[in-house]
Amino acid sequence: MKAAFIQETGPAEKITYGDLPVPEPIGTQVRVKVGAVSVNPIDTYIRAGLVQFNLPVPFIVGCDMAGVVEAVGPDVKRLKLGQRVWGSNQGVLGRQGTFAEQVVVDETWLYPTPDDVSDEEAAAVALVSITAHLGLFREAKLQAGETIFIRGGTGGVGSMVVQMAKAVGARVITTAGSPEKAELASDLGADHVIQYRTQKLEDELKKLAPAGVQVWWETLREPDFDLAVSSMASRGRMILMAGREARPPFPVGPFYVKGCSLHGFVMFAAHPEEQRQCAADINRWLEEGKLQARIDRVMPLSQTAEAHRLQEESTVQKSGALGGKIVLKP
Q1: Taken in order 145, 147, 151, 152, is the CA torsion positive or negative?
Q2: pLDDT in tens, 126-179
Q3: Nearest to 236 by CA among 220, 253, 252, 258
Q4: What's the predicted TM-score (pTM) here?
Q5: C-alpha count within 13 angstroms, C-beta hemisphere, residue 184
Q6: DSSP track, 157-192
Q7: Structure confidence by residue, pLDDT tens digits, 228-249
Q8: Which residues in the chain are classed under CATH 3.90.180.10?
């Protein structure tokens, strides 16, 4: 089978597109014929060695996938041959990645794909939608009628946060760096979009939420905690999802006086049952049209190295050039 893999960590040029043996499922594993995969920033960090895992060698890159079950292990209970599935949480914690024509995955990490949802859409929402769901509902416990601020409402995770928050009846305030992205954020469901290049974020938040926001979702690697805490309501909840090496100043006094809470998490550490609960809501919202994938471009799997370069330019180098996920097809 063809696969995109590395023999050692390093730059995108380390990725080889070539032949590897077709894997055979054992126990509760299934083999999936891959229809689509998508690139996440974490994929590039793992490939570069910036996030340390014990990787199998060769290591197939990638976390997300969607496709069709073509073989099952003897202990599989949930899935059957020919069933369309999607999943994430691969390529981490010693598990092989997904950027191959066939992948073997334990059935606990796979979910049925709704009939009207394409493999491209399912792969594009996989990691980002589970991440958004865990942060919004397991951590922040967002409720209908509450106000949430999400920095960057058109990003991979941000676009999912905006749509899910609206799906449960929250009021959404977000930011955008251009009129075009502001329009897109509104189309996704944001009630208010602050264009941070021409508007002062702190002033606009005071106008839109004078009593503060109940949930603050932070995406910056180096957050401005003074701004965040001053903009939060009493007993507000802050979600952090970036900044592994960050050490920004933190206003301890104002934070605890308001009774706020701080929640940091990574989706791949969540229990399989927690992620399965997320997937049930995600599938329902996909079927209802309340959740839509943000796909910037579709590329052949053979161009995985180029896809990694584009992802790094957009995130690590902060070009912001991508308007959604990069999806690849074998």
Answers
A1: positive
A2: 999 999 999 999 999 999 999 999 999 998 999 999 999 999 999 999 999 999
A3: 258
A4: 0.96
A5: 22
A6: HHHHHHHHHHHTT-EEEEEESSHHHHHHHHHHT-SE
A7: 999 999 999 999 988 777 899 9
A8: 2-113+294-329
